Amino acid sequence: MLAEPKSALLSTALVVGVTGHRSLRPSDIPILEHQVRDVLRDLQKRYPRLPLVVVSPLAAGSDQLVARIALEMRIRVIAPLPMPVALYRDDFPSEDARAEFERQCDQVEAHVLPLSRGNSVASISTPGSARDKQYADAGTFTSNHCHFLLALWDGEPSEQLGGTAQIVRFHLHGDVPGQIERRHEGSSLLGLVDDTLVCHIRAPRAGSHNAPGAVPTWLTSVADPGSPHLPESFDDAWRKQSEFNADIARHLADAATSTGASRPVGLGGIWPLFEAADGLARLYQRRVNRVLRATYLLAGLMGAAFFSYTHVASEDLVIYGFLAVFLTGMAVTWVARRGDWQRKYLDYRALAEGLRVQAYWQWAGLTDGPGATFAHDNFLQKQDAGLEWIRNVMRGAGLEAALGSAPEPESRIDVVIADWIGAPGKAGQLHYYVRAIERRARLHHRAELFGLCCIVLGVGVGVLLALFARWFDGELKHNLVAVMGILSVAAAVHEAYMHKKADKELIKQYAFMQRIFSAARRRVDESRNVQEKRRVLRALGEAALSEHAAWTLMHRERPVQHSRI
Question: What are the residues facing 15 on neighbouring strands?
C-alpha cells in the first residue's frame, strides 16, 4: 500500500539515495548489511541534528537491503517506484523478493513516478526499452534529490540503461550515454564542479568470483578511485546544515514573526522552509547591522578621544576612555564573529531567495517529472564551495515538494505571476523592488549629506584657523584643531561605513532586478499559452538566482572585521 506523504520538514534532512545491483551473492549479504549499517550509524553520530532520510526504489537486491537496514534503524524511507505497483510487483525475480517488497511498501512512503515521455502502461507492461527507461527515471530521480548516493556496485562500467553504473556516472558527472538527460551544465563534465558524492560499497554480482570491498569508499567527480574518509568539503556542508536546523529550533518563533513574506493562497510545499530561512536571514541581518553601527560608532569615538587628548584635555581619563572604547569594539566584533552572524545572514538570505524561486517553479509545474531541471542544480555552482550546503537544503526541500500533491499546473500559473512578479504598487517582487529602491535611495542621500556636512564643517574650521589664527588664543586654537580632526574622523568613518553597507551597489542591483521583473511581466502578459508563460518564469528564475549569487559574493568580500577599522 502507498503511504501518505508527510508534510515538508523544516528541520532539513540528510538525504541518502540508493542504487545497486539486483542480483547479489547470498554469502555477501551479511557483509553488505554490516557496511550499510556502519555508514548510516556514522552519519547519525557525526550529525545528530540532521535526521536521515533514505530514498530507495525498493528494487530486489541492493535497494531492499538498504531499505531493510534503514527501517530497522527507524530511519524515514521514501520509495520512488518506477511504475505502478501492479506492474512493478511482477518484475521481482522470486517470491521472497516480492514478499519483501510487499512488507516494505507497508512501512515506507511509496510514490509512483509519472510515466516517462512517450511511455504508456501498455509499453511498460513487458520487458524492453520502455520499461528500462522507467528504471532510469527512478535512478535519476533518486540522484537529483539526494545529498549523496549509496551505491552497492561492483565498480564495473556498463551501458545498460538505468543500470547501477549509469546512475553512478550520472550522479557524479551529470551525463551518460543513452536516454538519460543531463543534470548539470558543462562545467560538471570538465570536473570543475565537485559537489556530488557517492559512497561506494563494493558488491559483486551473483556469479562473480571477486571479493566484496573491505570498507566503503567516497567518490567525487574528481576523486577516483576514492578515499575511505569523507571529503572535508562535504563534512563542512553538512555541519552548516546542522547549524541551520539548530537555528530554526532556537529562533523559530522570532523567524516566524520577523519574516516579511506572506504565504500565497494555497502555496505549500517548499514555502514553509522559505519562511524559516527568510525569517532567520532577517534576524541575523538585524544583528549584523547593529554590530556595524556599533563598531563604526566606537571607531569614531576612538578618534574623538584621540584628538581630545592630544589637543584639549591631556588627561589620563581620556586614555582610559580610549582603551575602553577599543576593547568594547573588539568585544562586539568577537561576539559577532564567534556567532558567525554575517556568514549566516548571507547564507540564509541566499537560501531564502533560492527557495523562493524553487517554490514558485514547483508551483508553476516547472519541476514536474524525474528528468526536470531543478533550481538547486546550478545555483551558486561556480561560487564558494562553502555554499554547497544551500544546494543540499534545496535538494531536500525539492524532494518534499515532488512527493506532495498539487492541483493541475495550469491553475497555478496566474497565482505564480500575481504573487511572484506582481505589479508596482500592488504586490510581488515588482512592488518590493520599487519600494526598496525608493527607501535605499532616500537613506543613501541622507548618509551622503551627513558625510558632506562633516567635510564642509571640517574644511570650514580649517579655513577659519588659516584666516584668523593670529587673533585666537592657544586654547581656542587647540579646541578648533580638535573639532577639525573629529569632523575629519567622522567623515572617514562614515565613508567606510557606507562602503561596508554597499547601499549604492544595492540600489543598482535592485534597479536591475526591477528591469528583469518588468520585462518578465510584459512577456507573460503577451504570452499566448501556458507553455510560453512557463518559459518566461524559468528564465526569470535563472536570472534571479544569478543576481542573488552575485549579491552574496559581493557582501562576503566585506566581512565584519575590527582590524581594518
Answer: 53
